[in-house]
Each structure stands twice: as structure tokens, then as C-alpha cells.
Amino acid sequence: MKIVATKVTPLQCGAARATDANTPQVVLITGAKSQLAEALLRVAADIGELAPNTSTSTSTSTSTNSVVPLKLYALSRSQLDITDAANIAAVFTQYRPSWVINCAAYNAVDAAEHDAIEANGVNALGPELLAQQCWLSGARLLHVSSDYVFGGHAVCDVRETGAEQYQNPDSASNHLPRPFVEIDAPEPLSAYGKSKLLGEQKVLAVLGERATIVRTSWLYGQDGHNFVKTMLNLMRTQPSLQVIVDQIGCPTWSDALAKVIWQLVMQQRSGVFHYSAQGQCSWYEFACEIQRQALALNLLSQPVVIQPMTSPDYAKQVLNRGVSLAKRPSYSVLNSGKLRSTLVAHNALSMPEQIEWQDWCQQLNRMLRRLS
């Protein structure tokens, strides 16, 4: 794949839909200022060894490979408001996309409990309106969803796995949490989780086989606001931290997710997929690893005390400050097996390292090195 980047304004982009294998297909990326949209552009640039200029509000780049060339446009909310059907129609008329990657999302999990209308507008109505316009125009839609569509109750019976710890056939400890697979029944606990699930359902109902859903978890990167950057800032300014120890998931680097998404687009894949880094941890373990690696990379000058805290204790603590928290799953690890088996058969992107299948600690190290 080769990326050729130029700067454009929206009025320059009236490209016709691709009619042959040599004509670039247009890919629209919503939510241009999100950390995932930034990662999508960065990964595309890494592949082509030429970075697209993202200093303007509209970014474009052209990629070519043996499958199909792509022209990429990342649009901010001021350019494409996914809750405005008329705005969407106008943008589709102007850009005539073959693919839309929806990175626009309402991610304020706690605020959504008191602002469900706004959360549903961005996370459910918006994806539905995008899907409807994709249906009318013949485009495909890749929609990004969340591990919070699950409630934390997936279990496996260790008697079926041959696990050595199986001792007592009646012991409750024989039933252990297992990573969620795509066919597990969603059971969101929060208004945010419900809005993300509704968005999935709307997209699939409208587009069917032209829809791709990618659920991910605990996303972080060098752009935007996320747990890693928050922890680094707190570790530089606070003598000690308390971090949740009883919520288990898997941190996922935005650049790795971006690479997975480009592979799905290049391979024209559809369906529901899970993607996260390999392994699992608690928020407390995540914070400890952030500090350990940051100290080794000289991103921090000295360690701070990190204390584990349970979710109920944290909820009581913030409630005393007048803040209420949304319910979160105690276990939301995603099984990426289906996606990996789908992509390895034909890897459309040539990169020296398969960062997407690395352990979460390895992915974290790659991201932190970019900050050092």
C-alpha cells in the first residue's frame, strides 16, 4: 500500500464513486478529532511512509495496493453531524463515499446516566442515519462499538476445559469468567452501554451484510483523553493514587485497532467482530504497569503510591462529592479469535510487526515510546 497525501478543502472533493479497480474509493471517517480517527490517519500514513497533513479540518490521502485504492477524508462534527440527516445527505452527495468509518461517539459513561437523550442521539440515532444514507447510496459502514454492551456475566465451566484447578464438582470456583465472543447475549448495565447496543442494532437492521461492527475495550492512545494520559498526569502531580481493582478488561492501543479496521475495509469484511489486545487486567494493574513502563522510559521522574480500591468504595467516595457513577461490568474481556482467523487468511496491509495481536503490555510499551 502507498499513501499519497495532499491538503484539500471540502469544496475540492466532489469525487465520483469508483468505477474500476484503478479509481480510488472514497472512505469517510467521522469524528475526525477523536483518538481513533487520528490513529486511522496515522496508521494509513505509517503504511505509506508519508504522513497526511492533519493541520486542516479536512484530511485526505490516497492509498493504492493490489486490492483497491482508497481516498480518505476525516470530517469533524462541524463538517459532518451524524445526528443531522440533511447534513449527512449533503456530505454524501459531495464526497460520494464507498465506505464510512464511524468514529463519532458519546463516550461520557457517567454523564450518560443523566443525559441519555444526547447519548442515544450520537450513539444510536447517528449510526442509524449513517446506515440509512449508506443504504441509499450503496456505501458500506464500519461502526465502532464497546465492551460495555456486556454485563460481565460470561462464564465457562473449567470441567469442560480440563483445567488443573478443578477439584470439587460442586464448587462455584469451577465457573470462571471467560472472554466474550460475538454470539454472547449483550446485557448492558448503563445508559451508555444501552446506547451503544442500540446503535449496533440500528446499523445491522438497516444495512445487514453491508455493515461491519467492531467492539473494542479500554481504548487509549497518544491523542485525546484516555486512561493512560490521565494516569501519567496524576502520577506527575499527586503523591498517591487509588485505582479500581475489581473491574477486569483489556486495554487496547488505538493504533492497533486502526490497523485492524483498515484490514477489514481492504478485505471488504462484514459482520460483528471483537477486538482488543491480548490478555486481561484490572484498572489497578493497568495503572501499575503504566507507572512501571513510564519510569523505565523516563516519562516519570519518581514513583507514586498506587492503592487498589473496590468499585463500591470508589462509588461511595465520589457520591460524597455529589457525583454518581454508572454501573460498569466487572468483567468485559473480549475474545478476538473470530477477527484474527478472518484476517490472517489474507493480510492486505504489509507492516513489519503484527502489533494488533500483541499483549496489552507490549502495545502499551509501543505507545509510551512514542511519548518518550
Question: How would you describe this structure to a colleague?
Answer:
The structure is a single chain. The protein is of the alpha/beta class. About 35% of the residues lie in helices and about 20% in strands. It has 10 helices and 16 strands. It has an 8-stranded mixed sheet with strand order 1-3-4-2-5-6-9-14, with helices on both faces. Strands 7-8 form a two-stranded antiparallel ribbon. Strands 10-13 form a two-stranded parallel sheet. β5 (about 100), α3 (about 115-135) and β6 (about 140-145) form a beta-alpha-beta unit. α7 crosses α10 (about 360-370). The longest helix has 22 residues, at about 115-135. The chain is globular. Residues about 1-20, about 50-55 and about 155-175 have low confidence and may be disordered.
List keywords for this structure.
alpha/beta; globular; disordered N terminus
Mean pLDDT score: 84
Secondary structural class: alpha/beta
Sequence of strands across the biggest β-sheet = 1-3-4-2-5-6-9-14
| Quaternary | single chain
What's the order of the H and E elements? EEHEEHEHEEEHEEHEEEHEEHEHHH
Radius of gyration: 21 Å
Q: What fraction of the residues are assigned to beta strands by DSSP?
A: 15-25%
Q: How many helical elements? A: 10
Note poorly predicted spans: 1-19, 49-57, 157-174
Distance between the termini: 29 Å
**Principal-axes shape call:** globular
Count of distinct strands: 16
Helix content: 25-40%
Largest sheet: 8 strands, mixed
